[in-house]
């Protein structure tokens, strides 16, 4: 039942952003929503053998342009992708949240529920968005470090 509900949600999401409902797009959305971390294109390729590299690149590019996903870089400079909030669109992304890079497992986490302080820029600066990074150990790696 949950999988059917998710597919309907993904189909609605593609309709909302005026994208065709193709099996590869639905699979990418399903895969990304099942993960608790941002995911790189190479990681998605290794998980989704039936979608070729070019098709996956085009899907990720279209999703980013439409405001379905956002790009965040890990400590090595590799682009990772995470689902956007429901109020993002192609003209207005709202992914201003903390991105946490774990120095141990190398996962990138979107910490959406933190209350971030307002950023007051000097006069004349016009922000179009911002990215905030933190690095350290995620809860899983912290527990492993304590046990050692």
TrEMBL record:
Q: Which UniProt keywords apply?
A: DNA-binding, Iron, Metal-binding, Repressor, Transcription, Transcription regulation, Zinc
Which of this chain's residues are annotated to bind Zn(2+)?
Answer: 102, 105, 138, 141
Q: Spell out the molecular function terms from Gene Ontology.
A: DNA-binding transcription factor activity; transcription cis-regulatory region binding; zinc ion binding
Q: Which residues hold Fe cation? A: 93, 95
What cofactor requirement does the entry state?
Zn(2+); Mn(2+); Fe(2+)
In terms of InterPro entries, this protein maps to: FUR, Fur_C, WH-like_DNA-bd_sf, WH_DNA-bd_sf
What does the entry's cofactor note say about binding and number?
A: Binds 1 zinc ion per subunit.
- Superkingdom of origin: Bacteria
Write out the GO biological process terms.
Answer: negative regulation of DNA-templated transcription; regulation of secondary metabolite biosynthetic process
Pfam families (alphabetical): FUR
Question: Which family is annotated?
Answer: Belongs to the Fur family.
- Write the protein's name: Transcriptional repressor
* Species name: Mucilaginibacter rubeus
């Amino acid at each position: 039942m949950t999988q059917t509900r998710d597919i309907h949600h993904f189909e609605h999401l593609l309709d909302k952003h005026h994208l065709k409902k193709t099996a590869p797009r639905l699979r990418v959305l399903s895969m990304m929503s099942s993960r608790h971390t941002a995911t790189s294109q190479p990681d998605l390729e290794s998980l989704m053998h039936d979608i070729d590299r070019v098709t996956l690149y085009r899907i990720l590019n279209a999703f980013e342009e439409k405001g379905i996903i956002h790009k965040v870089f890990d400590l090595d400079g590799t682009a990772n992708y995470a689902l956007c909030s429901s109020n993002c669109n192609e003209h207005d992304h709202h992914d201003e949240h903390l991105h946490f890079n774990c120095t141990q497992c190398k996962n990138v986490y979107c910490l959406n529920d933190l209350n971030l302080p307002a950023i007051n820029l000097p006069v004349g600066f016009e922000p179009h968005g911002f990215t905030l990074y933190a690095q350290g150990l995620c809860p899983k790696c912290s527990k492993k470090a304590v046990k050692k």
